[in-house]
Amino acid sequence: MATTHSDSETMGGESVDDVEQSAAPVEARVGWRYTLAQVRKDPTAFAGLVIIAVASFVALVTTIDAVVFEYLAQYQVFAQFGVEKYWLAKTLWMSPTAEPAGTTTLLPPVGMENTFGQGTWAHPLGTDDRGRDILLRLIYGTRIAILVGVLATTIGLVGGMVIGAVSGYYGGWTDDVLMRLAETLYAIPFLVLVLAFIAAFGRSITFAMIGVGVASIPKFARLIRSRVVSVREDEYVEAAKAAGVRDRNIIFRHVIPNSFAPVLVQATLQVGTAIIIIAGLSFLGFGIQPPTPSWGQMLSVSRNYMIQNPWFSVWPGLCILVTVVAFNMFGDGLRDALDPRLNN
Predict the structure, then answer these.
(1) What is the DSSP letter of 127?
(2) If residue 288 lies in a helix (H) or strand (E), which one and from where to where?
(3) 8 Å CB contact between 156 and 145
(4) CB-based contacts of 28, cutoff 8 Å, min separation 6
């Protein structure tokens, strides 16, 4: 008599279901999609990513309004439509740099009152010492924080990757020379090195950004060198050498990509550090110069009015705090997502 077999019947000690599951494709635990999925599972990391995305969008829009429109205004085809610097802000609200006539200075946030008057919805976060809207200046200050922080980090990242990769790949006297030079920069206090760079080349946000980037090169160089020293012994690198691939191609196509994960994590954390340094330089008068909005410069001005209107100091300080913490939260989550011990 024929017998029937259920789907759960064992086959050589394994059930059919086990065999089917083992035959199913295993989900890849590498790549940016898997990393992003891991970050989304981490509430703090995802919250940091959302804040960074919003700040980046605001920085992009304000950069177009402050920089791109100023460039386009030089052409008659755009000038006839009234395109100018801060054209979008003036159309929707007001200029973030002009001092409006008839506006009370140092107004408190809406719903509050001080010796200068009652807060109004026309200026939700109040006004500064020149009657300019604080909220609008905070929005346009995001451009400086994000753009300069990312560009300064990129300078240090690229410079550190090249130095660290070449040093770790070749070793020997090349390693000794490059790393000793990097350690010389590393021995100088970060802020002192940046101030010396600005003093040598000029008091400008451009040189401040470059100075912060150059000062962070040793940190990235040491990090990627430690990875390259182990990666250069892997079989695929040896195979590339045996195939006659040039050292330059091996470094940039094989060594650096396979050593990039910890560097990427450090880069996200470094952006927060760069934002604090640039804000500190603006506070000291070495960064963004008025009337261009920047959080550090707003803090510098507000310290003279902390008794009259303490909220003038709270808002830019809070923006710096939230942005830096967001990059740190995202960096921590990214580190966990890229950690092979957790992936396994």
Answers:
(1) B
(2) none
(3) no
(4) 34
Cα separation values, 282 from 138, 252, 299, Å? 14, 36, 9
Secondary structure class of 168 (helix, strand, coil): helix
Task: Please name the residues in contact with 15: beta carbons below 8 A apart, sequence gap of 6 or more.
Answer: 8, 9
The confidence score (pLDDT) of residue 294 equals 92
- CA dist 271 and 288 (Å) reads 18
Strands 10-11 and 14-15: antiparallel
Per-residue pLDDT, 72 = 93
For the stretch 19-61, pLDDT in tens is 444 444 444 455 667 777 877 888 999 999 999 999 999 999 9
Q: Which two tokens stand for residue 165?
A: 């990769």
The answer to whether the CB of 272 falls within 8 A of the CB of 327 is yes
**Is the per-residue pLDDT at 169 higher than 80?**
yes
Dist. CA 174–CA 172, nearest whole Å: 5
CA distance 166 to 220: 13
Contact 99, 290 (CB under 8 A): no
Output phi, psi for 25, to 5 deg.
-65, 135
- pLDDT: is 172 or 295 the higher one? 295
- Work out the number of other CB atoms within 10 angstroms of the CB of residue 155: 21
Other CB atoms within a 10 A radius of the CB of residue 198 amount to: 21
Closest CA to 131 of 291, 286, 281: 291
The CA distance from 32 to 319, in Å, is: 29
What distance in Å separates the CA atoms of residue 234 and residue 255, rounded to the nearest whole number? 10
Q: What is the pLDDT of residues 232-287, one digit of tens each?
A: 878 888 888 888 888 888 888 888 888 888 888 889 989 999 999 989 888 888 87
Q: Are 311 and 126 in contact (CB under 8 A)?
A: yes
